[in-house]
Input
Amino acid sequence: MDTSERSFARRIDLTSLQLFVAVCELGSIGRAAEREFIAASAVSKRLSDLEATLQTPLLYRHTRGVDLTPAGESLLHHARSVLFSLEKMQAELSEYAQGVRGHVRIHANISAIVQFLPEDLGAFSREHPQVKIDLEEHLSTEVLRAVQEGTADVGICHAGVAGGHGLQALPYRRDELVLIVPRDHALASRAAVAFDDTLDLDHVGLHSNSSIYLAMREAAAASGRTIRLRIHVTGLDAMCRMIHNGLGVGVMPRRAFTLMHGVGDLACVRLTDAWAPRAISLVARDFSTLPLTARLLVDHLRGRADPAPEPAEALAAAA
Output
């Protein structure tokens, strides 16, 4: 932060920002003053000082209240973000006062959350009950962005997506994509099927930016074809229910399907494609500079990682 940026930060008053947001939300200086238990003249003075500091008008004042100028709309967006961050900081620090001894922020994709993290994080929490874990589900591309921007300490996503983003990656788990069909479907009796053989069928797919859907789309494009995508869903349980009701076939991780006990009368069929076996990675900007609690969690997850594939197994996955 250079000198001008430090000077600007010192001149911005948080109370004035809070009052500005209140005025914007209520559309009136008088109503904002009542809500915040402060004199209307004091609110008006703070807003005038804020405009002088920023050297631009923030509000159009009229007899019915106030409206935002373009600069005011921009400030409202940033002010809300600043105040939200302060509230979050207060909540986190209060947890330390109540006995929390560490805090790790994780963003992970749906495959890792459904298949592995409940057991792995549960075991870690039993060993380290005073470490707080914040876990959020995101698409793999969003997981990487969160780690890059520092929103997450550790990300968990598929290795194929993790490469080329300037982040460090460590192996964590492996999964296998399979085709899910109704039990009475013509493909249900097959031991294995190539994804290309399913492209004449309607598909139920995950979000268009999910790693699973991107792999499916690339495979279809390599065959010079497109996926007959009938429905997009946001969860694997919803996909199973759609498939059970005859709305198409779908692709999901085998272990996730196994864990979906009783979600439809369905069968899974192995995919013969090279992209069906996948590696899930832990990602960070720099594992060596993570806080101690985050490094403890990474070591724990690495201790529960799948063993490296045997050479014959690796060759079969690449075939």
